[in-house]
Amino acid sequence: MGNPRRVQQMLAIPVEVQKWPTLLSPSEINQVSTRLGPIGDFKDIKSDGYLVEALVHLWDPICSTFRLGKEEMTITIEEIAGFLNLPVQGTAVIFPLASDKVEFCRFTGIKESVIQGLDQNIEAKFLFDRFALRDGFERHRGDFSFTSKEIWDRKRVWVYGLVMAGTYLFPRKDKKIAFKLTKIMYDLFLGINNKPCSIIPTILADIFIACSTCQRGGKFFCGSNLILHVWGMEHFMRRPAIPESLPMSGYNWVITHHKRIDSSNLPCNASDFVDFLTNMTSQNVRWVLDWTNCTKPILHTKASEFVPLWGTQGIMAYNPRRFLRQLGRVQDVPPAVDLTPFVIVFDKGICPKEIPMKTLIDEAWETLSDDERVKYVPGLKQRGLTTPQYEDWIGRSTIQEMQDEPAKEVERLKAIIEARDKEILQLSKSVEAYKGMAEQNKQMYEGEREKRQEMKRKCGELYDQAERVKLPYARETRDSILDRLKSFGNLVRNRLHDMM
């Protein structure tokens, strides 16, 4: 299977982002937490990145699943929704169309002239100075397109949500906040057609896409690595002594995460994590997370057995019927669904103006459904039960997976080589561009050097003439001396004008 690749992740959180929640009132925090969950507390999640690297290595992009030895699992809508205490069913679909600087300025109230030269993103510190600090409005009044402190108070909460989402849910390698998230924030705070929106499908889609792109050679995990880290830790490293009857709603699962994890025997690196996960048995897995609401999960739509997901990086889909054990049900053979046609990765992470599959996604989210034929039995939810038919099916799938592994490894290597070739091509273009700039700079330097030499020569001539002017002629009158000095002064001014 090979060794897992190093995957860059959002692990070191900017100081301003960590400090920001402490500067807001409980009311302001609540306005954001009802839309993004307790996202300000993500700063307390500690990760070294190894588990995420291992999960990326074990990811099957065709089925949107992690292959864990003889088991398969994935992160589900219900698991993210429960972790963040946010609703999904009954909400409108967010289509994260890319926003530009104009829309960003309208959302924040920052004047466009203040952020000239910025195209796609902005530093979190810039927004922190103007919106997090209580005197931000007074200190930077000239940067805003509005003059009302009341408007600033409202925008302050919005911008806080934007920065938290841009850091923890949709991170960038440079740790800046992307303008393209503005449309998502508008939908979350204002709703769509008087209907609330949910961020959960967008988060899940970006995690799936990040797993796929990083496995194909991408260097940065462009999804919420911290949510994926928590998901893995709670499923595979949870302390058994934790009470089973924790509350289902209103409980902050983020800040209490570390209390539930057994950190005494964690794998030391990504390779050890891969070995640990592939050799794990069903009895070692906590199949249903403490916060997962199993009563009425999303298992399919009216039109299909899969659920389409729209993210900031592209479109993905997954088949919830493959992961019934994570929803407190007995796992049977899932319907065969080819998800490949429903996977689209946006070029450079920018959604095109023509929305692909918009009608299909809209209709799917209007007809989300569970399956009454698959009963939920609370007393059996942690046993991870399966049918004999499923065991036979997963066994054959595992054998087939092992047979296909060499071919898949070749495909992965091809994808990595293609990605490297693109990088080399881009570097070559950059080198050529820098060569041209260097040649221009050299010519400018030569021109300036010649100018300096000419200026030195002319200055020398002026100095010689100044020395001669100091010596008076024999029997020279006072008026003659003044005329001579005046003529010399005019000469100096003309020379200086020529040299400028």
TrEMBL record:
InterPro entries: DUF7745, MAIN-like
Stretches assigned to the DUF7745 domain: 24-394
Name this protein carries in UniProt: DUF7745 domain-containing protein
